[in-house]
Amino acid sequence: MGLLKHLIDEHLIKTGTVPDQYKPHLLQGNWKPHRECHVQPDFLLIWDIDLETNELILVRCGSHAELFG
């Protein structure tokens, strides 16, 4: 969880995204307009930014199987 906390505190809160090494990208389909990154190879974080309130919304985290069934 140390890396997850670091990504949230040092990147998402400050910039709204994470470094490219974590493969941040927009999700499609029912998950649109959320964003996702790979904290570890099979540990993902899904988030969104509310542009009206400028709030970071942490949606879910977990493995591909846990998140997308």
UniProtKB/TrEMBL annotation:
<dbReference type="InterPro" id="IPR035093">
    <property type="entry name" value="RelE/ParE_toxin_dom_sf"/>
</dbReference>
<dbReference type="InterPro" id="IPR004386">
    <property type="entry name" value="Toxin_YafQ-like"/>
</dbReference>
<dbReference type="InterPro" id="IPR007712">
    <property type="entry name" value="RelE/ParE_toxin"/>
</dbReference>
<feature type="active site" description="Proton donor">
    <location>
        <position position="64"/>
    </location>
</feature>
<dbReference type="GO" id="GO:0006402">
    <property type="term" value="P:mRNA catabolic process"/>
</dbReference>
<keyword id="KW-1277">Toxin-antitoxin system</keyword>
<dbReference type="Pfam" id="PF15738">
    <property type="entry name" value="YafQ_toxin"/>
</dbReference>
<dbReference type="GO" id="GO:0004521">
    <property type="term" value="F:RNA endonuclease activity"/>
</dbReference>
<dbReference type="GO" id="GO:0006415">
    <property type="term" value="P:translational termination"/>
</dbReference>
<protein>
    <submittedName>
        <fullName>Type II toxin-antitoxin system YafQ family toxin</fullName>
    </submittedName>
</protein>
